[in-house]
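input
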Amino acid sequence: MKRLLRLFFAGLFSVLFLHQITATPIAHCTEQQQTREATPKASYGFPMQVHRGLPIVDVWVNGRGPFRFGVDTGAMYPVVFRAGLTEQIGLARPEAPKVGSGSAGIRDKPTVPVDSIRVGDTVFTGISAVLVDFRSFGPPVEGTLGLPLFKDFLLTLDYPGSRMRIERAELPEADGKTVLPIEKHPTGLALVDLEVEGETLAALVDTGNLAAAFVLPKSLVTRLGWASDSSSTKKARTLGQEFTVEEVRLSGAIRLGELVFSQPVVVFGDTFGKALIGGQAFREHAVSIDQKNWRLRVVRSPGVDSGR
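output
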């Protein structure tokens, strides 16, 4: 059943992980945002670490750094700062909140103007950063870089190669195997089709998902075959609340283009009516996102043994 369970993603997509600010997007990426590139090393990129599927890179803010930032493709905001970073850098006082409350229990958050953000050899200017205190449950980073920040570039995250690339390039036409069409949601995020035991549903490409490679709607998981007799439970947090989710290993497979994930572990719960594919699904691959043509490429990294 093609397009069965096509999901309506309203507000912020993840309720588990890094980007729990739910609101109408504020003007972070406007016509005033500019980029300036130094001598690029596009073919080689720059170092990237991975924490539970979250890519982490060094970032310079207003010429100061480096600071560790996560690259969160499921975040609708170009830049998010840990609340205490502004004082550490000596930025201006935060502006009045511009972000409305949302379903994840998030209230208005202040923003702060930033002169420049440097990532590798690329400098972004004319940006406002949202301030969030996620130290109590988040990864060891000072902030996050969202997908909209890279709207003019081809972004590549090479997980096993531990490299990130930002290039003025485009992906080839979709072939349904390694290069896939992706749908642009009104929030600027990317949705790609997953096939789950014969059913097709749209999933958010979400490298900020720290819980599992896949999050699926409970209504779907309860109809699928399980490799175990029962699911296990664990606690999950947002900025505003803590709740319980369930985890289970499926007996079938999930397909993304030509990739087949056999008997994957998935997370589900009453909180979720949507699907996510997290960075843990890409641990043996390099994933590229082309926002000019809205295409996604997932290929096995040259550094991965093909016999694995």
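quick obs: The domain at 1-308 is CATH 2.40.70.10 (Cathepsin D, subunit A; domain 1).
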